[in-house]
Amino acid sequence: MRQDRGFVDPRLASRLGDRFFPDIVALQEGTTTQDSVGEPIITWVTKHTVKCRFALEPVVQGSRRSSESAPVIFGTHRAMLVGEFQDVRPDTWQALINGVPYDIKAVDWNEGFTSLVMDQQIPVAVNA
Prior knowledge:
Layout (H helix, E strand, L loop, with lengths): L9 H11 L2 E12 L5 E17 L5 E4 L5 E12 L10 E5 L2 E11 L2 E11 L5
């Protein structure tokens, strides 16, 4: 009887190696503390480092104001990771890919893989 191994058989994924998963992602969990005047400080701790496939989504969400009220552009990205990382949660974790931080907005786990939907905040220069 045929055994269903999901979208991609894990044995095949291990052989794909650097060709299909060329990037490295550091999955970081954020811990919020306060400084001496009560302002929040987020400290990022790397919990997992894994190979991934990273791509810009075809739809860019456009510009809006960030939490600091500065205009920014949010670009939506996707990453497919080898392995199921059930502890990763949207909005409290970030993905660090090639030295660039991305806010994790959605996580999906599927038989040996983790899929992330992420936003990148790109500050917009304001003419003074």
